[in-house]
């Protein structure tokens, strides 16, 4: 009987090619966020439960069904973070970050939600996240979208990914649209799905993106946000779309793309693909100008996005972007008396940015043969000649990698 503990259902161990794809996503994100001058932040893995219940809404599925909450020894309710935005907003209000407004921040790390595991979705998962806080101008939305577009291109996964864009209007526009939706859907209440009947009271906008076929006949003819947009809201959305056009970022209008929580305003967006099964969102976000008020702070404009690292890594792997690079230099110690010189050489190579490995165990006569099987670009053999250790560069065709190794060998003395 195997008594070895098994992994928790819905979690994963990441290794090999999967881990390389994961790391590639993070490294590319870090490089791109520096290009856009987003400041790195690190957030707590758990927060007071109120941070998420107040920001996400007590009646949302995340709060009511998916959060991992617990009481600590002092009796305080804490929650493993299900997303980044609420914690960043809390820090903005409590840690004095307001002095840096408009503040551009980015982070990545693990998040936790209790949900049915499926392809690319886990109960412990990882996200990259970028936020602009304190900027009311549509150019903040444009910059975030251009940044996201560049990230996907540099990851090599932009083909087949579409930016879907919508506006939710300003507060006045959204309330007028919401009232019209309630009136319209109330007339069809008995024909709606159970979920949509429930949403009619809490989040009527969410009915618009229902996947239930019972709702489809009614969502198609539902009131459109464009009929309720104020002049200011129209100008805002126009500035976002014209900014994207100027930056060369392709987009399509998606009128069914909504955010159910009341603090969302103006821009809502998703980058979607058909290469991940039913769950096609690669990266998504929007403007959440009302969130700070929900957390007890002053009116503060903000916009942000997040993307699942596992999902991006799957696309990266499918696109063949992370094939492990061949080893540059393999050092074969064919005489144990030359080990010290070999270790000195190994250190020098790595300090010069050349990846290298060493074979110094097992039968000395077989070490070179093992080195050949590594398919390294350069193989260095270490032997003792006339009582002194000697390094011999033994490789095939001349390559830049071999030349780089050769230059280092010239500088290393026994």
Model description:
The strands form three sheets. The chain has an eight-stranded mixed beta sheet. The longest helix has 20 residues, at 16-35. The chain is built from 14 helices and 15 strands. The model has no long low-confidence stretch (mean pLDDT 90). With 414 residues, it is α/β, with parallel strands linked by helices. The chain is elongated. Strand 12, helix 12 (339-351) and strand 13 (356-359) form a beta-alpha-beta unit.
Task: Summarize this entry quickly.
The protein has helices at 16-35, 49-56, 61-66, 85-94, 138-154, 171-186, 194-202, 216-219, 231-247, 291-294, 309-318, 339-351, 364-373, 400-411, and strands at 39-40, 46-48, 69-71, 77-80, 103-112, 124-133, 162-167, 252-253, 265-272, 281-287, 302-308, 329-333, 356-359, 378-385, 388-393.
Beta fraction: 15-25%
Strand order of the largest sheet: 1-5-6-11-10-9-7-8
Count of the separate structural domains: 2
Query: How are helices and strands ordered from N to C?
Result: HEEHHEEHEEHEHHHHEEEHEHEHEHEEH
CATH architecture annotation of the largest domain: 2-Layer Sandwich
CATH class of the largest domain equals Alpha Beta
* Poorly predicted tracts of residues: none
Total strands: 15
**Number of helical regions:** 14
Q: Give the mean pLDDT.
A: 90
**CATH topology name of the largest domain:** BirA Bifunctional Protein, domain 2
Rg over C-alpha atoms, rounded to the nearest angstrom: 28 Å
Q: What is the SS-derived class?
A: alpha/beta
Characterize the main sheet: 8 strands, mixed
Report the end-to-end length measured between terminal Cα atoms: 55 Å
Shape descriptor: elongated
